[in-house]
Amino acid sequence: MRSLPWITAASRPLVMGILNVTPDSFSDGGQFSATERAVTQARDMVTQGADIIDVGGESTRPGAEAVSVDEELSRVIPVLDRLAADPDFSTPISIDTSKPEVMRAAVEAGATLVNDVRALQAPGAVDVCQALQVPVCLMHMQGAPRTMQANPAYDDVVQEVGDFLRARAAVCEAGGIARENILLDPGFGFGKSLTHNLCLLKHLDRLADLGYPLLVGLSRKSMFQQLLDVPVSERLVASVAAAVLAVSRGARIVRVHDVLETVQAMQVYAAVEHANCP
Fold first, then answer.
1. What is the pLDDT of residues 85-99, one digit of tens each?
2. Residue 19 near residue 263 (C-beta atoms within 8 A)
3. Number of C-beta neighbours around residue 229 at 10 A
4. In terms of CATH, what superfamily is 5-273?
5. Which of 12, 104, 221, 235 is catalytic?
6. Does the pTM exceed 0.90?
């Protein structure tokens, strides 16, 4: 996956399966921190219909502590190496990281997309991605994971998120990253209150109008705890419903934990959208 036109050409919105190889992610921390279990999970998600596998070695949940470059590499590279060595595994892999060193090593190990919650703001990140010639996903986050949910504030969350994403895309294009290789992510739950998240979802079409494919991650977010008073393990229905709402407002990729159920929902959505009605 060295360019992104296939996303907009796809007959249905695409599903990105989340593979957290960390001990402390908010939903599945520790489940796939062992390489063998992570590789099995990646294969299972592909069998369920995942179009992309997103591998991350550093938790970005609220309150998460940062990890070193070496620690992050030790978590993700063995998984990437195993998947790259499997001749039957051809699904594109993205690397969920903000560190230029991890970006480079992951792409050399087989990743073909860089998914960065900090929108390539780390020194050298734009240059590395330009040199690697891989697509990038730029996400909006107010603050940093350790403190981002302390007191998020906006005058107009949709406008401000859009302005940030537009500006970051312009920086990337000026740095030599092709426009057609840029995805945008509004960053649900990253420095946003429940109202901010709902407003972003309600008006997601305004961000789609920026002209870049949108990736959204709503799966099992704490907003569903606030709305429904349900634990992480009981957020499947809400997550799938939010994914359908997102694609109905312009999202092209949904990043999810529950791949099979979301793929089925996307198939139903696409069938309705493309129905040949008199």
1. 999 999 999 999 999
2. no
3. 8
4. Dihydropteroate synthase-like (3.20.20.20)
5. 221
6. yes
> Lowest mean pLDDT: which of 3-12, 194-203, 221-230?
3-12
Higher pLDDT, 199 or 9: 199
Note if 255 is an active site residue.
yes
Among 61, 104, 252, 255, which one carries the catalytic annotation? 255
How many Cβ atoms from other residues are within 10 Å of residue 98's Cβ?
22
Give per-residue pLDDT as tens, 117-152. 999 999 999 999 999 999 999 999 997 776 667 788
Task: Please give the biggest Cα pair distance in the chain.
Answer: 59
Residue 270 burial (10 A CB sphere; 0-12, 13-18, 19+): middle
State the pLDDT at residue 3: 59
Residue ranges of the domains in the chain? 5-273
Between CA 144 and CA 121 the distance in angstroms is: 12
Q: Is 221 a catalytic residue?
A: yes
Residue type, 210: L
Q: Tokens 């699904």 identify what position?
A: 91
Among residues of the chain, what percentage have pLDDT more than 70?
A: 92
**How far is residue 265's CA from residue 247's CA, in Å, rounded to a whole number?**
11
